[in-house]
Amino acid sequence: MTPRSAPYARAGSKLQLAPWILSSASRIPHEKWGEVFVGTCSVTLCKERTHWEFLNDRDQWISGFLMVLRDRAQKAELLRRLRYSAWETADFNRCCKTIKGELPAPVAPVERACVFLVNNQQSYNKSGRTHSICDTNSGIPKWKRIHEHIEFMAARIRDCAVLCKDYGEALHMPEVDDPRMLVYADPPYLDVEKTFYSVNKREGFDHRAFRESLDRCQASLLVSYERDPNGEVLDLYKPGDGWRVDDKRVTRSLGNKGKEATELLFIRMSDWARERAPRWRIKRVRDMFDDE
User: Fold this and answer.
1) Which comes out higher in pLDDT, residue 258 or 15?
2) What is the pLDDT of residue 282?
3) Whole-model pTM?
4) What is the mean predicted confidence (pLDDT) over 8-18?
């Protein structure tokens, strides 16, 4: 089976929800595509290519890793190093302290990519905190095929522009702030902004400011959130402001195993896309998780 996921895992990954999200994307005319909080890049990895694409994440460990995969020589060196990487606690602890800032981060991009991958994949439940020394809830099976996941991801993002910017900067770049662009945004969900995302540890995440930044962007938009009990998210994305919403019942895994929740997908089409939507050819979204 060909891998269909990134070589690493992150909280809030949309791996299982990608087909649902892409079913909406396929109905929005667009010539360009991008993710503004790329994380594991799950949606892009399942999507057909467009004329121009970008991947943005303010987390330098993620954006740096993607940049290594886009460079053929650096990717080859990364694969060579990983081939001889031991699954040992001492190396994991070194990488863990480096990610936390307790040890100086390496300057070389390939070494940084190694640190990031070891910390992520060799930890219990991919938490990045506790080294996993058994097969149960660990990344050992994936680590044994890590080169396949790297090659798959590298091939898909080969022509993507990789950015490491604040969402406001990314959304208002001339190439992105374009009616022909379709942007997928997966911001931190309410009440977990500081829990899972290191870039928000100090300041948190201002959801209203993010919403206002979207208002100033001319692109078509897809925005993911979880339904909150107080309805704060629904108040931010009202139909009268041009948004419509789709929802899907899901079962959470990370930190809330078995918890039922409702995933929301807010959708706004640009004027350019709206004019073309009636005659846009609806493409069938392939189930990217079936065996080929």
Assistant:
1) 15
2) 40
3) 0.87
4) 86
CATH T-level fold of 18-59+164-279: Rossmann fold (3.40.50)
| CA 164/CA 36 separation, integer angstroms | 10
Identify the residue with better confidence: 232 or 110: 110
Q: Tell me what pLDDT residue 170 has.
A: 97
Cα 257-58-187 angle, rounded to 5 deg = 45
Q: Evaluate the CA torsion angle 122, 20, 289, 56 in order and state its sign.
A: negative
Q: Are 277 and 27 in contact (CB under 8 A)?
A: yes
Query: Rounded to whole angstroms, how far apart are CA atoms 222 and 214?
Result: 10
Please give the Cα distance from 219 to 271 (Å, whole number).
9
Measure Cα distances from 19 to 24, 104, 202 in Å. 9, 40, 34
Q: For the chain, state the CA radius of gyration.
A: 19
- Domain assignments of the chain as residue spans, ordered by start: 18-59+164-279, 70-156
Phi/psi of residue 173, each to 5°?
A: -70, 145
Mean pLDDT of 28-42: 96
